[in-house]
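Please decode residue identities from the backbone states below.
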């Protein structure tokens, strides 16, 4: 359950309020909500999946304490995680590999 005392969640609620303000209210509530909410929900879910995979992959790489990045291993790990959360793995890896690699390289240089 979300803690409504956290300001982080109110930022998200504010973004949803801004989105609703831009949408005309037509038809029944259920019709209007179905038209308005579905795409927003899908985008939020995609973002949550992407964030989860990236954070989990990075934490796993850090936990292994490797002195370098094994590209094959990391790509496979990203593939496994993306499948677990329901992302298309090839598309996800194409989009996420560079960011993951740079995050790991930055950790090595720190």
């Amino acid at each position: 359950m979300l803690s409504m005392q956290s300001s982080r969640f109110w930022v998200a609620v504010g973004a949803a309020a801004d989105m609703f303000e831009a949408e005309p209210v037509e038809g029944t509530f259920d019709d209007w909500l179905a038209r308005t909410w579905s795409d927003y929900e899908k985008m939020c879910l995609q973002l949550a999946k992407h964030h989860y995979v990236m954070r989990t992959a990075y934490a796993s790489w850090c936990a292994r304490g490797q002195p370098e990045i094994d590209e094959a291993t990391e790509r496979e790990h990203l593939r496994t995680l993306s499948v677990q959360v329901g992302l298309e793995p090839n598309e996800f890896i194409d989009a996420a590999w560079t960011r993951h690699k740079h995050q790991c390289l930055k950790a090595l240089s720190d």
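Observation: The longest helix spans residues 29-64.
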